């Protein structure tokens, strides 16, 4: 008998890294949670290209029918996939996306303020 | 007079004279010089000369090298004998390179009462330079396209149309030499007697062609003879659509075998260089021939090819023989069935032919033997040679990148080469 | 990511199920997407080019019209098969009886007739600007837009769902150019390019037209664009006008574009030179078919009225005469050509009788 109990195995939809150096590209795949990242998938459900193209777009392809089927039959989702599906409108938007968006906005506001401040200072000095 | 001469010699020719005097007699040098110069008779001492050079004239010497005896000439000797060479070519006798005039020797010693010295003389005109000897090349320069198979040989070259016969001019004809060689036979009197044998093919590029072998003592005569003989042995060959043969066939002449294959338009002539020449003369443009056995025997190769062409079966003959329509399917016409020959009687027979009975590709090989076609490994070149393999991998790595880059440039998504150069220039 | 998996798999199943329940709501959004897409392709707005303001597509797909168009296209089998650029390959030979040859020819004709399918004549499509979801809380979640493409097995390019999540958090149906690009990326087609070839730019197109490469331009346009793409419509109409003014109608005969050309000219009531070309080439039945097509496309016109009163057995000359009398602009030329054709036909017939 093994001393450590076996990990419970279940299906999960996650990203598999298929790019090369400095060029990430992901497959959205259905795998067992215990299998390796790039293990031969049970099913390939789409792709995700995280590098924006010349039109400033990140391309995601989704096999919507099969994803729905696997979700209904109890497959789990990894966090990035959940975010993607949330953005696509297939699932509710992931809370983390909102948080990221808020942080980004705050960061930008802060930046804008810090840029505006010296400009105002300079104006006051001139006057 | 003598004194003046002495002075002259003392001034100018001293080293020459002193060099012939032995070193242990230095003190007597001056006296001896005087003695030598003043007594010209003693200068040419009589002594035994072993050389023939003094005994015979130049003409006699040249005769000895260049002439051939009468009997020898009959046997054909002396054809390659040397020719006389003018050894004084470009030289003027009596004038050296410096062009000096020596008073008393090469010019007058006195002008009026004044005695001249060498320094008084003006330099005479330097002897006109010898005309440059033109290096005569052994052969005239021939343009690359008229040169035949290799540098200076006849085979492959064109020798023009055959000579006209009774006002009939061979217009549009061209003749090419296929073989040009020395042949010999032994005679009792002359020994090995050499002749030139020439094989030429003549034709008009529209299906009419003939070939002939002729021999003659001289090469040009042999070529002319063969050309005119070939013009009298013309045969007409039907060609399929004026560009290739009607079907694949094999033909054998002694130990030479040709496997001729019909090829689509644009394929070109892939065959023995002799066959390429013949095809150009006949007007065949697309052909593949595998030559086996004695491929160096050009006469047999030629004979075999002409016989094979003559024995072809045209599509019309095939249609008449089997009483069926011959239908062609061309890939560039969407495999549309196009009848190329119908039976002459206007109606085909009723029962169709089975596919097994009709194999057009291998129909005309004899005895049911068909050529073996080995499948070639397309990667052979790369996998066997490590250098090539490395190159292949390199190509594989960025095989699409150049094209993609070009597309980006076309759509204005990437700076062009000129732009990049401009950007890389230093700021100053 | 690796850390998040066990967490999600063990404890948050209930949340996942609630999300699955929410799926229904979101599904509705996807259904809405597809509905909107269908609507955008079907509800074509009235064309501004035609004075009637009618949609030509339903008229074009009408069986009668299709029949007339295919009739006037002609069927020169050698021109349809045409020598295409191919890799060198040997021709194949067969020995056939007369009956077999006839069968083979019939098969080939059937096969090649598929090449004459006429590209649809449509009005330009309109962009769908209504967003699916506006979420200001999601603004600036990323610097770039996300394009989601449905690659479900068996989905056709025209029915494919493509949505775009813009950087300001709005989810909307992708505009047409993005949809075309996504289709080319996930379902590439031979002869189509990812970006619009520069050949279709105004300047280059004019040059190609002046070189009379009509069929090449039209073929390539068919490969590159959808039939309701404004670029397709602009290109093809420009070429049709050039052909009509240059009188090169015969270049398109026995190609798939002749029907479109005829439809365009008749729809815009400028088919007179085409009719003249047909009469000059003694294609009387084609000319009659063209006039009948005019009657169908413009039912309110005087020509259609007279055609309706004409007996169905009346000859092609009578039908063309109706058009000349009622709606033609090149009346005298057409009348002369009709007369010449008639005389030639009579002469031919009398020659046969002798």
UniProtKB/TrEMBL annotation, chain A:
<dbReference type="GO" id="GO:0032543">
    <property type="term" value="P:mitochondrial translation"/>
</dbReference>
<keyword id="KW-0687">Ribonucleoprotein</keyword>
<keyword id="KW-0496">Mitochondrion</keyword>
<dbReference type="GO" id="GO:0005743">
    <property type="term" value="C:mitochondrial inner membrane"/>
</dbReference>
<dbReference type="Pfam" id="PF00886">
    <property type="entry name" value="Ribosomal_S16"/>
</dbReference>
<dbReference type="InterPro" id="IPR023803">
    <property type="entry name" value="Ribosomal_bS16_dom_sf"/>
</dbReference>
<feature type="region of interest" description="Disordered">
    <location>
        <begin position="101"/>
        <end position="127"/>
    </location>
</feature>
<dbReference type="GO" id="GO:0005763">
    <property type="term" value="C:mitochondrial small ribosomal subunit"/>
</dbReference>
<feature type="compositionally biased region" description="Low complexity">
    <location>
        <begin position="109"/>
        <end position="119"/>
    </location>
</feature>
<comment type="similarity">
    <text>Belongs to the bacterial ribosomal protein bS16 family.</text>
</comment>
<protein>
    <recommendedName>
        <fullName>Small ribosomal subunit protein bS16m</fullName>
    </recommendedName>
</protein>
<keyword id="KW-0689">Ribosomal protein</keyword>
<dbReference type="GO" id="GO:0003735">
    <property type="term" value="F:structural constituent of ribosome"/>
</dbReference>
<dbReference type="InterPro" id="IPR000307">
    <property type="entry name" value="Ribosomal_bS16"/>
</dbReference>
From TrEMBL, chain B:
<keyword id="KW-0496">Mitochondrion</keyword>
<dbReference type="InterPro" id="IPR048584">
    <property type="entry name" value="Ribosomal_uS5m_N"/>
</dbReference>
<dbReference type="InterPro" id="IPR000851">
    <property type="entry name" value="Ribosomal_uS5"/>
</dbReference>
<dbReference type="GO" id="GO:0003723">
    <property type="term" value="F:RNA binding"/>
</dbReference>
<feature type="domain" description="S5 DRBM">
    <location>
        <begin position="173"/>
        <end position="237"/>
    </location>
</feature>
<dbReference type="InterPro" id="IPR013810">
    <property type="entry name" value="Ribosomal_uS5_N"/>
</dbReference>
<dbReference type="GO" id="GO:0005763">
    <property type="term" value="C:mitochondrial small ribosomal subunit"/>
</dbReference>
<dbReference type="InterPro" id="IPR014721">
    <property type="entry name" value="Ribsml_uS5_D2-typ_fold_subgr"/>
</dbReference>
<dbReference type="GO" id="GO:0003735">
    <property type="term" value="F:structural constituent of ribosome"/>
</dbReference>
<keyword id="KW-0687">Ribonucleoprotein</keyword>
<protein>
    <recommendedName>
        <fullName>Small ribosomal subunit protein uS5m</fullName>
    </recommendedName>
</protein>
<dbReference type="Pfam" id="PF21251">
    <property type="entry name" value="Ribosomal_uS5m_N"/>
</dbReference>
<keyword id="KW-0689">Ribosomal protein</keyword>
<dbReference type="GO" id="GO:0005743">
    <property type="term" value="C:mitochondrial inner membrane"/>
</dbReference>
<dbReference type="InterPro" id="IPR005324">
    <property type="entry name" value="Ribosomal_uS5_C"/>
</dbReference>
From TrEMBL, chain C:
<feature type="compositionally biased region" description="Low complexity">
    <location>
        <begin position="40"/>
        <end position="51"/>
    </location>
</feature>
<protein>
    <recommendedName>
        <fullName>28S ribosomal protein S22, mitochondrial</fullName>
    </recommendedName>
</protein>
<dbReference type="GO" id="GO:0003735">
    <property type="term" value="F:structural constituent of ribosome"/>
</dbReference>
<dbReference type="Pfam" id="PF10245">
    <property type="entry name" value="MRP-S22"/>
</dbReference>
<dbReference type="InterPro" id="IPR019374">
    <property type="entry name" value="Ribosomal_mS22"/>
</dbReference>
<dbReference type="GO" id="GO:0005763">
    <property type="term" value="C:mitochondrial small ribosomal subunit"/>
</dbReference>
<feature type="region of interest" description="Disordered">
    <location>
        <begin position="37"/>
        <end position="56"/>
    </location>
</feature>
């Amino acid at each position: 008998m093994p001393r450590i109990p076996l990990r419970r195995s279940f299906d999960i939809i996650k990203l598999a890294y298929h790019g090369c150096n400095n060029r990430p590209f992901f497959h959205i795949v259905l795998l067992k949670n215990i299998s390796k990242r790039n293990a031969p998938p049970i099913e390939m459900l789409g792709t995700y290209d995280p590098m924006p193209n010349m039109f400033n777009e990140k391309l995601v392809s989704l096999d919507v029918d099969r994803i729905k089927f696997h979700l209904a039959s109890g497959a789990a989702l990894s966090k990035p996939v959940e975010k993607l599906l949330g953005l696509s409108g297939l699932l509710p938007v992931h809370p983390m996306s909102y948080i990221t968006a808020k942080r980004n906005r705050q960061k930008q506001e802060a930046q804008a303020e810090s840029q505006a401040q010296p400009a105002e200072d300079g104006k006051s000095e001139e006057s | 007079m003598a004194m003046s001469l002495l002075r002259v010699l003392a001034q100018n020719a001293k080293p020459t004279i002193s060099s012939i005097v032995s070193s242990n007699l230095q003190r007597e040098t001056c006296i001896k010089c005087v003695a030598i110069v003043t007594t010209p008779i003693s200068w040419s001492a009589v002594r035994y000369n072993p050389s023939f050079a003094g005994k015979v004239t130049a003409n006699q010497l040249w005769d000895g090298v260049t002439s051939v005896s009468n009997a020898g000439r009959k046997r054909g000797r002396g054809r390659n004998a040397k020719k006389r060479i003018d050894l004084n070519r470009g030289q003027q006798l009596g004038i050296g390179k410096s062009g000096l005039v020596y008073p008393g020797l090469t010019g007058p010693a006195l002008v009026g009462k004044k005695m001249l010295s060498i320094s008084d003389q003006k330099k005479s005109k330097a002897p006109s330079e010898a005309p440059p000897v033109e290096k005569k090349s052994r052969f005239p320069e021939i343009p690359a396209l008229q040169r035949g198979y290799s540098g200076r040989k006849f085979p492959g070259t064109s020798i023009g149309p055959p000579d006209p016969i009774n006002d009939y001019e061979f217009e549009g004809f061209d003749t090419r030499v296929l073989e040009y060689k020395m042949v010999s036979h032994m005679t009792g009197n002359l020994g090995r007697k050499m002749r030139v044998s020439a094989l030429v093919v003549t034709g008009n590029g529209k299906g009419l062609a003939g070939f002939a072998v002729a021999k003659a003592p001289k090469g040009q005569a042999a070529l002319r003879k063969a050309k005119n003989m070939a013009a009298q042995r013309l045969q007409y060959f039907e060609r399929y659509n004026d560009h290739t043969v009607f079907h694949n066939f094999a033909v054998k002449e002694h130990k030479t075998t040709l496997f001729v294959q019909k090829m689509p338009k644009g394929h070109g002539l892939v065959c023995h260089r002799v066959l390429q020449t013949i095809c150009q003369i006949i007007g065949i443009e697309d052909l593949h021939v595998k030559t086996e056995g004695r491929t160096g025997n050009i006469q047999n190769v030629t004979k075999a090819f002409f016989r094979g062409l003559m024995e072809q079966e045209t599509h019309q003959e095939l249609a008449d023989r089997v009483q069926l329509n011959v239908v062609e399917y061309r890939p560039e016409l969407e495999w549309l069935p196009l009848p190329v020959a119908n039976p002459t009687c206007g109606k085909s027979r009723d029962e169709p032919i089975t596919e097994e009975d009709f194999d057009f590709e291998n129909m005309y090989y004899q005895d049911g033997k068909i050529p073996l076609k080995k499948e070639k490994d397309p990667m052979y070149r790369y996998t066997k040679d490590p250098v090539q393999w490395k190159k292949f991998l390199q190509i594989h790595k960025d095989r699409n990148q150049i094209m993609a880059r070009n597309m980006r440039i076309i759509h204005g998504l990437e700076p062009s080469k000129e732009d990049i150069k401009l950007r890389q220039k230093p700021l100053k | 990511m690796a850390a998040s998996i066990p967490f999600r798999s063990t404890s948050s199943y209930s949340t996942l199920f609630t999300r699955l329940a929410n799926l229904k709501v979101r599904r509705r959004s996807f259904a809405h997407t597809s509905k909107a897409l269908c609507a955008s392709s079907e509800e074509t707005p009235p064309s501004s080019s035609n004075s009637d303001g009618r949609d030509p597509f339903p008229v074009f797909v009408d069986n009668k019209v299709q029949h007339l168009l295919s009739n006037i296209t002609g069927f020169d089998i050698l021109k349809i098969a045409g020598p295409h650029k191919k890799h060198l390959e040997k021709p194949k030979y067969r020995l056939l009886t007369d009956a077999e040859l006839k069968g083979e020819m019939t098969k080939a004709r059937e096969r090649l007739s598929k090449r004459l399918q006429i590209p649809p004549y449509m009005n330009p499509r309109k962009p769908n600007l209504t967003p699916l979801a506006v979420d200001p809380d999601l603004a600036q979640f990323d610097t770039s837009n996300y394009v989601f493409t449905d690659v479900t097995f068996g989905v056709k390019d025209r029915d494919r769902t493509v949505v775009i999540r813009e950087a300001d958090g709005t989810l909307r149906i992708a505009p047409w150019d993005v949809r075309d690009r996504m289709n080319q990326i996930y379902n590439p087609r031979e002869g189509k390019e990812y970006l619009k070839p520069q050949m279709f730019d105004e300047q280059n197109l004019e040059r190609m037209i002046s070189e009379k490469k009509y069929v090449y331009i039209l073929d390539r346009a068919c490969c590159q664009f959808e039939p309701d793409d404004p670029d397709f419509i602009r290109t093809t109409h420009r070429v049709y006008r050039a052909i009509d003014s240059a009188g090169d109608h015969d270049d398109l005969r026995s190609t798939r574009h002749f029907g479109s050309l005829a439809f365009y000219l008749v729809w815009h009531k400028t088919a007179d030179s085409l009719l003249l070309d047909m009469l000059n080439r003694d294609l009387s039945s084609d000319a009659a078919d063209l006039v009948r097509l005019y009657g169908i496309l413009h039912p309110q016109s005087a020509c259609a009225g007279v055609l309706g009163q004409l007996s169905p057995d009346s000859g092609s000359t009578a039908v063309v005469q109706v058009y000349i009398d009622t709606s033609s602009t090149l009346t005298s030329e057409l009348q002369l050509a009709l007369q010449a054709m008639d005389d030639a036909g009579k002469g031919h017939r009398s020659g046969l009788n002798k």
